[in-house]
Amino acid sequence: MLYGVSLGPGDVELLTLKALRTIEEADEVIAPGKLAADVVEKIRKPRIVEFPMGRSEEVIENLSRELAERCVEEDIAFVALGDVMFYSTFMHVARRVKELGGKVECVPGVPSFTCAFSVSQIFCDRPLGVVTAKDLKNINSDFEYLAVLKATKPKEVARLAEEWGYAVEAVVRRMFMEGEEVFVNRNNGKIPEFEDYFTVVILRKRD
Ligand SMILES: C[S@@+](CC[C@H](N)C(=O)[O-])C[C@H]1O[C@@H](n2cnc3c(N)ncnc32)[C@H](O)[C@@H]1O
């Protein structure tokens, strides 16, 4: 079986018991990059597979072929930060492995966008959309809240959001990791200047 295992946003205590057991019992654990590997290493050493820009399709194809063959006899755990169902490399591998006849199971976990609400202590009881920074180029939405993933440039996100009638409520960077930063915009504060791929921005529709 090929397992897609959600690691949560970076704190090993936010793994589910099922994720922990799947990682412990698998014949091999594969991590797509260093940050996911750093989390899983607290449990056991993974094999790191990088998916470099421009070559990722080739890596996905080769890995999928290998896993489709191996997961007949073996249990392989492919981990992902947050929940494996959202914007993860595993999606591409799982699709291809299934096409090739392999069996896949997904272990749910804590996604980064819900965790961004927790660390910034924003309670949400209004409609919420989950988007990436790229989507903000054309977003005509009625959601009261938007959680923006891949928000590498928070200032740019804030500028685009304003065009669509949204304001920044919070910017969270590298939750539970070295370099963690939580900015909650209480009084029209200054949006952080940093650039970091591991950033989630929470937006709220202006009145
Ligand atoms: C490829 S997507 C993966 C999403 C992930 N599967 C999830 O459920 O949250 C990568 C994005 O997730 C967000 N992310 C994941 N872990 C994070 C963390 N610890 N702190 C801040 N953002 C994080 C960032 O927005 C990053 O650009």
Brief synopsis:
The chain is an alpha/beta fold. It has helices at residues 17-25, 34-40, 56-70, 90-99, 112-119, 154-163, and strands at residues 2-6, 28-31, 47-48, 76-80, 104-107, 128-132, 145-149, 166-173, 181-184, 199-205.
How would you explain this protein's 3D organization?
The chain has six helices and ten strands, in the order E-H-E-H-E-H-E-H-E-H-E-E-H-E-E-E. It has helices spanning 17-25, 34-40, 56-70, 90-99, 112-119, 154-163; strands spanning 2-6, 28-31, 47-48, 76-80, 104-107, 128-132, 145-149, 166-173, 181-184, 199-205. Helix 3 (56-70) packs across helix 4 (90-99). The protein folds into two domains: 2-107, Tetrapyrrole methylase, N-terminal domain (Cobalt-precorrin-4 Transmethylase, domain 1), CATH 3.40.1010; 112-205, Methyltransferase, Cobalt-precorrin-4 Transmethylase, Domain 2 (2-Layer Sandwich). The protein has a five-stranded parallel beta sheet, with helices on both faces. It has a five-stranded mixed beta sheet with strand order 6-7-10-8-9, sandwiched between helices. The model has no long low-confidence stretch (mean pLDDT 96). The longest helix has 15 residues, at 56-70. It is elongated. It is of the alpha/beta class. Helix 2 (34-40) links the parallel strand 2 and strand 3 (47-48). It binds S-adenosylmethionine (SAM). Residues 9-10, 80-83, 86-88, 111-113, 149-151, 172-177, 197-200 line the site of S-adenosylmethionine (SAM).
